[in-house]
Amino acid sequence: MGDKARYRELKSYRDGDLAACFGTDLWLGGATSVPNLLLRHYRRIGLSDGEMMLIIQLMRLRAEDGLLYPEAALLAGCMQMGTAEVEGVLRSLVEREVLGLGRYFDTLTRKVVKGYDFTPLLKKLETVWAGIKTEEDLETRALMEEEAAAAREEEQRAASVYAVFEREFGRPFSALEMEQIDKWLAQVSLPLLMEALRLAVLGGKHNLKYIDGIICEWQKNNLRTVEEVEAYNQQFRARRKNRAPAGKPKQPADNVEERRKKLVQTIFVS
Questions:
Q1: What are the φ and ψ backbone dihedral angles of 81, each rounded to 5 degrees?
Q2: Is the pLDDT assigned to residue 111 strictly greater than 60?
Q3: I want to staple 42 with a disulfide (CB 3.0 to 4.6 A). Which of 47, 53, 58, 233 is the partner?
Q4: Which CATH code fits 174-246?
Q5: d(CA 199, CA 210)
Q6: pLDDT band at 155 (very low <50, low <70, confident <90, very high)
Q7: Strand-pair partners of 116
Q8: Alpha helices of the chain — where are they, by DSSP H?
Q9: Angle formed by the axes of helices 208-220 and 190-202, to 10°?
Q10: CA–CA distance from 99 to each of 44, 63, 90, 92, 155 (Å)?
Q11: CB-based contacts of 262: which residues, under 8 Å, 6+ apart?
Q12: Measured between alpha carbons, how far is residue 151 from residues 154, 160, 180, 193, 194 in Å?
């Protein structure tokens, strides 16, 4: 019998002392240490809830009372099982090599005694743990490869965007200018950035500040796609047209072009 269960305090309970005495017994009674790894994964070893509880009771009796080979009747008294059922579960655990039967030397009696051996259980748990670690390692590697592939794709995308800007501007870009493009790519979609570049080139504004102004204006108006920008511009032109004062009717484009040609002819003929 273990030291913790060998001694019992001889005292009578007084009114109001029951809770305190319970706390004392709870503390002095000790605790059975069960690895969390085993509690998490005993099902993967193939153990049922009842089998796991029986193993925990075996651990408790060994730690608390020093019983290496407790009788089935004693175990049945700790569980909702009959003696015959406990015997059957123990026999099954040994046959499935979850528990072993070992021999131990009792230092008090100087005799060799029989007892349950938890080594097979730990070996099975080690196999489960190794499998879990392998799965985690494969998952980690897959995630790292995905991140690396995404990073390479992002670098290639940025490089292609740099090339488009350099082609439109007709010159190589500096590191600071590339950093500015990276900031835009983080703020807006690629199609929207290309639209801002297109508008700047059409306006003859080969200037990153001009493009930044366009993007800031779109962000201020919460425009996130090219379609939203086009719709916004149409609404702006419509409002502007409605506010325009009535004046001379606008001459057709062909009349304006004809007058321009006649003016040019007049200048060169005279």
A1: -135, 150
A2: yes
A3: 47
A4: 1.10.10
A5: 10
A6: confident
A7: 101
A8: 3-6, 18-28, 36-45, 49-65, 72-76, 83-95, 119-169, 175-187, 190-202, 208-220, 226-243, 253-269
A9: 130
A10: 16, 17, 8, 9, 56
A11: none
A12: 5, 14, 18, 20, 21
Over the chain, what is the mean pLDDT? 84
Segments of the chain assigned to CATH 1.10.10.10: 3-127
Q: How many residues does the chain have?
A: 270
What is the phi/psi pair of residue 132, to 5°? -65, -45
Fold of 3-127: Arc Repressor Mutant, subunit A (1.10.10)
Spatial distance between the Cα atoms of 264 and 245, rounded to a whole number of angstroms: 31
Query: Cα angle vertex 163, ends 161, 168, to 5°?
Result: 100
pLDDT digits (tens, 9 = 90+) for 205-231: 998 999 999 999 999 999 999 999 999
End-to-end Cα distance, the chain: 130
Tokens of 93: 């655990």
84 within 8 A of 71, measured Cβ to Cβ: no
Would you state the structure tokens that stand for residue 214, as one six-digit string? Answer: 């366009």
DSSP for 21-83 reads: HHHHHHHHT------HHHHHHHHHHT--HHHHHHHHHHHHHHHHH--SS--HHHHHTTTTS-H
